[in-house]
Write a structure and sequence with these properties.
Blueprint (H helix, E strand, L loop, with lengths): L3 E4 L18 H8 L3 E4 L1 H4 L9 E2 L5 H5 L6 E2 L6 H17 L4 E4 L10 E3 L7 E3 L3 H8 L3 E4 L3 H13 L2
Length: 164
């Protein structure tokens, strides 16, 4: 049985920066009942509290954060890069430990966004890019989806289940 790494906030756990959460989502509830879910909040795992100041990546590029070319800063102008990178590494460790090939992460997050993230201006402006954790997981071969791509994640899981 293939396991799926999932953002804790998508499982209804109040770990968002503002203490909120999302969901429930039918696919995630089914996968949880099947014992497939490996939950993670990279920001909390990396040492940040809940609630916490919102953070963004100037330029919105998690790959550049991993390569040491960008910082993650919060709206108090504090550098929280170390916590974001630590959380991404913890998420990758969980993925390796559980042989995860698919992750479902929170869209637009500076940790978990897989297609678009905020641009660092704290103005709500989105740019093409991915968060730090999404970038690291994808770099290591994990397929990363967001909560609006649950049908696609289910299709990818079905394909994995068919391959011996």
């Amino acid at each position: 049985m293939h396991r799926i790494l999932v953002s804790r906030c998508l499982l209804g756990q109040p770990v968002r920066y503002d203490g909120g959460c999302h969901g429930p989502f039918d696919h995630l509830q089914r996968w949880q009942l099947e014992g497939r879910i490996v939950p993670v909040c990279p920001e909390v795992a990396g040492g940040l509290p809940t609630p916490r100041a919102p953070a963004e990546i100037p330029g919105g590029q998690g790959q550049q954060v991993l390569d040491g070319r960008r910082l993650v800063v919060n709206n108090l102008d504090e550098d929280v890069t170390a916590e974001f990178v630590a959380g991404a590494r913890i998420a990758l460790g969980l993925a390796r430990e559980h042989d995860v090939r698919i992750a479902v992460l929170k869209s637009r997050s500076p940790s978990c966004g897989n297609q678009r993230t905020y641009d660092g201006s704290f103005s709500g402006t989105l740019v093409a890019g991915e968060g730090v954790t999404a970038a690291l997981l994808r770099r290591e071969g994990v397929m990363v989806f967001n909560e609006q791509q649950l049908d696609e994640a289910a299709e990818a899981l079905a394909l994995l289940e068919r391959v011996p």
